[in-house]
Specification:
Elements lengths: L3 H8 L2 H5 L20 E5 L3 E2 L11 H14 L5 E5 L7 E5 L1 H9 L4 E6 L4 H15 L4 H15 L3 H8 L3 H8 L6 H8 L5 H7 L5 H11 L3 H15 L15 H14 L2 E7 L2 E7 L3 H12 L1
Parallel strand pairs: 2-4, 3-5
Antiparallel strand pairs: 1-5, 3-4, 6-7
Length: 298
Amino acid sequence: MADSGARNRLGRGLAALIGDVGEPAPDAPATPEAGNRGQRRLPVAYLRANPRNPRKSFGAADLDDLTASIKEKGVVQPILVRPVANATDVYEIVAGERRWRAAQKAGLHDVPVVIRELSDKEALEVAIVENVQRQDLNALEEAVGYQQLIDEYGYSQVQLADVIGKSRPHIANTLRLLKLPEPVQAYLREGKLTAGHARALVTLDDPEAAAKRIVEAGMSVRDVEQIEGAGRKKKTRGDADGGAPRGAKDADTRALEKSLSDRLGLAVSIDHGAHGGKVTVTYKTLEQLDEVCKRLRG
């Protein structure tokens, strides 16, 4: 696993990892002998895509927009790369593959890079963090990235939450998407379903049929949650009152909890009664508490 300093920087974002180095003169030589300090330029031909990059989808329209921007302003943020062992002038992209692809379409000969010596584990961590913080990954790609770290390096969900900078419930809910049937996952990859839809589908008896209904009817996340709530009521109809179990939360409350949890990146619980209620935000680190306080203070 990355050292503690690198892990702390990961939680604050990619900029913290590559922004602590000085920027050399524009004509600084792009040679391996220059070491790992600072930013330099490398020919696009020296770079290669990372086959383990969690991001697999690069929308054509989005790539065209970035290409147009690069033609006008150049590549603003450097691409993070690592040297390929036993190879000369070959660097694997850790973060910034979309910028590299767009730079090639824009006809650039070289691009700004920051070179770092990273292990496979550290490279995967950084790739996931960078994509998650940029919101470049769809929810399924995010889940696959988390599962890679669990399967290949033995991470627990708590460790993942610490490294990625997300709450443990967010990690758990995202991983649950991998339990959905393949046709439902395909809808998610294609953008026909949102992450909110998918999370609501996980608990249904027949998520594939429900997903088809959502796509065909253009149903909202709230519609799906109402279906989910109706299914739960059917399962508890053996109770004396024939209704939902005592203390169960309605669909609106659960939807609001999910909305706030996604916004804050932390677990949020709402308990409401006839005479008011309470909102509970659960944090695990002082950094997360500090972020909540900052948002509350505006």
